[in-house]
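User: Here's a protein and a ligand (FE2/S2 (inorganic) cluster). What would the complex look like?
Assistant: Let me lay out the input and then the predicted complex.
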Amino acid sequence: MTLTDRTLISFTLNNQDVSVRPDHPHLLAALREELDITSAKDGCSPSGQCGCCTVLVGGKAVMSCLISLEKAEGKEIITLEGFDPAERDRLASAFAACGALQCGFCTPGILVRTKALLDQKGSALTGRGAAGRLGAHLCRCTGYTKIFDAIDMLASGQIPSLELPSGIGKSGVKYEGKELALGDRGYVDDMRLEGMLHAALHLTDHARADVLRIDTSAAKAMAGVLDVFTAADVPGELKIGILYQDWPVFIPEGGRTSYVGDVLAIVVAEDRMTARAAAELVHVDYNVLPPFTDPAIAVASDEDAVWGLDGNVLSTSAYARGDFESAYEASPHKIHEHFTTPRVEHAFLEPESTLVIPDDDGHLMVYSGGQGVWDDRNQIAAVLGVDTSEITVELVSNGGAFGGKEDMSNQAQTALAAKLVDRAVKCTLSREESLLIHPKRHPIQIELWVSCEADGTLTALKARMLGDSGPYASVGMKVLERAAGHASGPYVLPNIDVEAVAARTNNPVCGAFRGFGANQAQFAMEGAMDRLAEMVGISGWEMRSRNVIEPGDVWGPGQIMDDGCRGARESLDALKPHYDAARAAGKAIGLGLGLKNSGLGNGFKEIARAVVQFREDGKVEVRHCWTEMGQGVHTVALQVAAEELGIDPSLIEVIVDTTRELGAGQTTGSRGTLMASGSVQAACQSAIAGGRQVGVDYEGEYRVDWTNSMNDGLENPIIHSAFGYAAQLVIADRQTGKIERVIAAHDVGRAINPILCEGQVEGSVHMGLGYALSEEFPADDDGRPTNMTLRSLGIIRPKDVPDIEVILIEVPQPRAPYGVKGVGEIGLVPTAGAVAAAFHEVDGQWRTHLPMGIHQPLQVD
Ligand code: FES
Ligand code: FES
């Protein structure tokens, strides 16, 4: 008798006898889909590569997506829900108190592992010692440093202090930190509803192929399937997009696929397993065409790479000042170099999930973890051909995004399915589908010419960049615009000539990703700085010091820098003693200096609103419109309200309000803290002026409407309203190349919550090290990604994370609330350049290509 012939499988779950159907693919599915366990998260099942699903089986921490029901039978299984309440509280409190969680998606699994380790080792356990045992766990947000701190705290028996931060500049626990740590604050896939259906997508087999026929009959005939929908069922617009509407939600018969994430059909079934199995039965006849996978060939070709779009140049961003040619020729030192950076996957731990619930009037309630719920609403309404008032998109805090959830993934298809079957439908992507569908970091080829005087003063820069944007626009033109704008790094260049082209190809779509073009451009510029420093005969620190922007200097596309740019100098100066000490100790060292804009800038009118309301029960509601994706925007809102209103923070309830248009746009570009703090501050001031009356909505607004576009023809445009600045020092062993330590000096303007700020920087440095050394998401000649598992992405594992020390610097940004500059993206801008310089000191080789490779294995003693 096979397992599936059996009626039920029994085991004990949290000390209760339970029985489940035998057809679940693994224990995790049985726990989540049948037993309503939500602390164990599904980040990658069934591959066992993220650790989010970790539970105790017979007292051992194991990944439940790797355990078959056959193996689980008769076992004692404990999830976080079944831990002793005092122990649950202690674990979660320590993680919250240490700032050891951001989005929280990985945290329940790590708590289970920590308990198992504490049971084994007791007070002998250390965070660093546990690093090797955390190898099964990915955390994309924290950089692990604060996870080590939390484990140290637990092992030492310290009692964590769980105070909410009482105002601006106070470290304190993250809002809802404990709930997040325990997995109790649900993500979309944790939401359950009686009678809810499940959907699955059928994706194309080919990056570029004519779709001749779509046959859904076999899928429809499968038991448990309610229906299958294709482009033929779309009543409204077929194409969506944040800026350009060029991205088809389905490829129709007679259409043509343009990358391997294109969707052909959505299957609706009684359960997820049936939906996914039926999606594989959708049969498509193709006429396969050769894809464009080389952006240089694509831009030179007369043939269109992408269905229905003319030409393969998505955008060209260019500007020039001074006379590059003459200045370059006349300069005594010059370099001309080609740099390449890779396509990179966000690897947020929570795969995309959407739940749509129709009401009796046909109105749709959409639960989305996207970064811009108003964009989601507008695009869904366009696809369904209905007024936006017929759609409400409720924002559910997500399990990481980093820019990868700006574009819709499955929201429109799920909404269509729910509307047509008139029942609640949830669609959760598998890890593989997630990897295929959402946009990545742009690979950019950069040709750079840079020159300087005999004393190292920079004279001229010319940059030519070609970014591979994949088929659909997403925000690719803005990424290349930002790469162009940041080409000079935080340095004064009197003669500059920059052009950045975004190409359309049939590779994976590229769009927003933490750093947004600035890190690609500054990897190249920092490389140039170190080469020129060597020619001049000065240190990397001195080269940067002689050229760093100061208030009043003209930067990049012509912006006259304000007082906030002192942060670049102060970040650099903060590292000087560490730089000198590491040099004196004989270490190989590399220094990177960078800047990254906060906010959209470029002439966009950015408006955010917030609402404060005093309630009858004594609580104060703060309503804003930003996506909490681990970065702590809820905590920022709480701290601003506590500061302005002078009230106990435990009285404040923070709510993302999507019932009224509080504006804002996407939570992107390091703008959440900046815009949220400004709008909440204004709402609080309005409440104070209005006498804090109970039940009144006090609205406040923060706007940035004074920036200019690069294309406005101004000599000195204000491209961005604010910038964050950072200097990072990478210290490596001169013999082995082992990276021992990273010291990151970051000017954040004002650290609203220093511990959360540090955590953001540590997570960014971890991501930056991965970008420098090991991460990439390549595609083959057919346009198909070749790294299709989390482990193959090259994310640095906990045991390989060097010590990261953060120095927070606060040079206030003029015209910004509290002087805030934003911290989300700048953290990984200088890292790759600093690593390249350190490695050059090890072996004398200049690096021009990312990832550089861990040919000198990273190890931690
Ligand atoms: S879901 Fe099991 S390890 Fe990722
Ligand atoms: S907190 Fe670990 S993945 Fe977000």
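Summary: The radius of gyration is 26 Å.
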